[in-house]
Amino acid sequence: MSDTAKRKSVNITVLTVSDTRTNENDKSGDTLVERLTEAGHHLVEKRIVKDELSLLKGVLKEWINSPEVDVII
User: Fold this and answer.
1) CA distance 45 to 68
2) Burial class of 47 by CB neighbour count within 10 A (0 to 12, 13 to 18, 19+)
3) In 7-73, at which residue ranges do the beta strands (DSSP E only) sit?
4) What is the DSSP letter of 66?
5) Distance of alpha carbon 52 from alpha carbon 11, whole angstroms
6) Whole-angstrom Cα distance, residue 26 to residue 49?
7) C-alpha 27: how far from its chain's center?
8) How far apart (Å, rounded) are the C-alpha atoms in residues 40 and 38?
9) Are 48 and 16 in contact (CB under 8 A)?
């Protein structure tokens, strides 16, 4: 079986936790999304959350409970 046949496309979400990053300057998040989508995965959502536990828990609970999310990064 070839490597391509073994790979499975998954629905991903990418979470950046930062008090300083924005959509305009989140280069590492953008690079991650670019590489994952180039590998054939589908981006469900990319989100930046301030470094506050309650906000982080809220996003993670939302994504964990979403039937369309396979992987949280």
Assistant:
1) 10
2) middle
3) 11-17, 42-49, 71-72
4) -
5) 25
6) 12
7) 14
8) 5
9) yes
Residue 44 token pair: 């469900």
Q: What pTM value is reported for the model?
A: 0.86
Count CA atoms within 13 Å of residue 72 on its CB side.
15
Each residue of 13-67: pLDDT tens digit?
A: 999 999 999 999 999 999 999 999 999 999 999 999 999 999 999 999 999 999 9
Classify residue 72 by burial, with Cβ atoms within 10 Å: 0-12, 13-18, 19+.
middle
73 DSSP 8-state letter: -
Looking at the DSSP bridge assignments, the partners of residue 46 are 14
Its sign, for the CA torsion 21, 26, 32, 36, is positive
Contact call for residues 11 and 64 (beta carbons, < 8 A):
no
Strand partners, 17: 49
